[in-house]
Amino acid sequence: MHITILRLGHRHMRDKRISTHIGLVARAFGADKLVLDVRDPEVRDSIKKVDNEWGPSLEIEVAEDCMEYIKDFKGDRIHLTMYGININDCINEIRKTGRDKLVIIGGKKVPSEVYSLVDHNVAIGNQPHSEVAALAVFLDRLFQGAELERKFDGRKKIIPQERGKKVIEFF
Amino acid sequence: MHITILRLGHRHMRDKRISTHIGLVARAFGADKLVLDVRDPEVRDSIKKVDNEWGPSLEIEVAEDCMEYIKDFKGDRIHLTMYGININDCINEIRKTGRDKLVIIGGKKVPSEVYSLVDHNVAIGNQPHSEVAALAVFLDRLFQGAELERKFDGRKKIIPQERGKKVIEFF
User: Fold this and answer.
1) Are A147 and A30 spatial neighbours (Cβ–Cβ below 8 Å)?
2) Would you say B123 and B23 are in contact if contact means Cβ atoms under 8 Å apart?
3) Of A28, A125, A136, which is closest to B28 when you measure between CB atoms?
4) What is the largest CA-CA distance in chain A?
5) Domain range holding A96?
6) Which pTM does this prediction carry?
7) Does B91 touch chain A (CB under 8 A)?
8) CA–CA–CA angle A143, A146, A151 (5° rounding)
9) How far does B64 lie from chain A, in Å, by closest CA?
10) What is the C-alpha separation between B100 and B77, in angstroms, rounded?
């Protein structure tokens, strides 16, 4: 099951850190590709820097036309929105198809077309919070925690500790 | 079980949006109190604005001395860090104590003292990603999804929809 994250509505100055967090969550929680709606070298560089140290994993690309991208995607198209169906009530159904997933994350101004183009509008609770949080919880529920045990083939690797930090570096 | 979130290392300009996302996640995912290590009216105002529309829930305070705050806390003190024990291997033990929780979220420069002051250093996976994501997944696992069905007593309330948006406003 191949997972693509589509980040809509990235605004250069305001959203650099939020979009970077989205990319890092996508990478760490088992997604395969991040698609942005604008080219932002700083976001790409921040994610690539993590890839270089901790292991490559995430393909990044820019979509010329996001609506076409959604229409053309082969698999389940899922829009994360506080207005949608509570994840508690739909995640099992979404997981069991086993098809590739496109997970769409917007900001405040998602075109209304998105709501009708997708297969599922999913709410990580029906309260306002954070697109970063929504993506992480969605992927954690989709993979049922297994994504946090995935192996990364990086220069650095953490050995989990009850106290302090232990990092092995490979040269 | 009363949940307090302690956000360490907030830097005014750089972290406003990230700290606001942390506050909104704390609010939406069932925490009771957010403690910041510096006074930042903008972060407080952003969270209070959501409280005013969607329902009050989160107490916000500033700690004069965070290390004392951690030492004095009565309950389980949990530090979220990529260097800790994978949440998959410790969440059941943490949940079953039923005691109040202090959940500590740092940035890059957490004093090493924190690692030894707490009862648990917990990793939401051992890869770098986002403090916002880490908090959301921790609370979602702690409450096993029940936090996303909590009722908020707000002016606005979403009626979950498969397509589009439905919001009831109370006056």
Assistant:
1) yes
2) no
3) A125
4) 49
5) 3-169
6) 0.97
7) no
8) 125
9) 25
10) 9
ipTM comes to: 0.96
Q: Do B158 and A116 touch (CB under 8 A)?
A: no
**What CATH code is carried by the domain that includes residue A11?**
3.40.1280.10
> Tokens 């809509």, residue?
A8
* Location of structure tokens 């860090």: B81
Length of chain B: 171
- Token pair for A116: 């009708």
Point out which residues pair with A167 in neighbouring strands.
A158
Read off the pLDDT of residues B20-33 as tens digits, 9 standing for 90 and up.
999 999 999 999 99
Instruction: Tell me whether B153 touches chain A (CB under 8 Å).
Output: no
Contacts of A19 in chain B (CB under 8 A): none
Instruction: Give the amino acid at B131.
Output: E
Instruction: Sort out which chain B residues have CB atoms less than 8 A from A107's CB and list them.
Output: none
A3 Cα to chain B: minimum distance (Å): 17
Overall domain count for chain A? 1
Strand positions, DSSP E, chain B: 3-7, 33-36, 59-62, 76-86, 101-105, 120-123, 156-158, 167-169
8 Å CB contact of A127 and B86: no
- Which amino acid makes up residue B27? R
For B53-110, the pLDDT digits (tens) are: 999 889 999 999 999 999 999 999 999 999 999 999 999 999 999 999 999 998 768 9
